[in-house]
Amino acid sequence: MAVEVLQELFTGHQISIITARPLLFRDVTIDWLRHNGIRYHSIAFTENKLQECIDSEISVLIDDAPHYAKEFADKNIPVILFEQPYNTSVNIDLVYRASNWLEVNRRINELEGSLR
């Protein structure tokens, strides 16, 4: 389901993968994305995800980390937060929950009008 949704999003949106993974994992990550048919426009490995997203002019963050959800929402950047047991306490404006990629796609469609 993730691959199909990401392929659909790729055709109409700029997909930027911005990860806090160490650069050491760059090749294995890119190989995994290629092997699984996940297309993207750009990829960055950084310790400062917020600044990289600001520099890349992202419109919405898709993540599961509660600290990123708060950090991005504080900067007025909408967040689609994948539901996980460790982020259930996050309940702030601009944070929208999703439990799967179909819900992510639905949330993006809902946000699309307000992001343009």
Write up what this structure looks like.
- With 116 residues, the protein is of the alpha/beta class.
- 45% of the residues lie in helices and 16% in strands.
- It is built from five helices and five strands; from the N terminus they run αβαβαβαββα.
- The chain has a three-stranded parallel β-sheet, with helices on both faces. Strands 1-2 form a two-stranded parallel sheet.
- Strand 1, helix 2 (26-35) and strand 2 form a beta-alpha-beta unit.
- It starts with a helix and ends with a helix.
- 16% of the residues are buried.
- The mean pLDDT is 94.
Features:
two-stranded parallel sheet, 116 residues, 16% strand, 3-stranded parallel β-sheet, alpha/beta, single chain, 5 helices, globular, 45% helix
Round the Cα radius of gyration to an integer and report it: 14 Å
How many distinct helices? 5
Low-confidence stretches: none
Q: Report strand %.
A: 15-25%
Helical coverage, percent range: 40-55%
Structural class: alpha/beta
- Overall geometric form: globular
Major sheet summary line: 3 strands, parallel
Number of strands: 5
Secondary-structure element sequence? HEHEHEHEEH
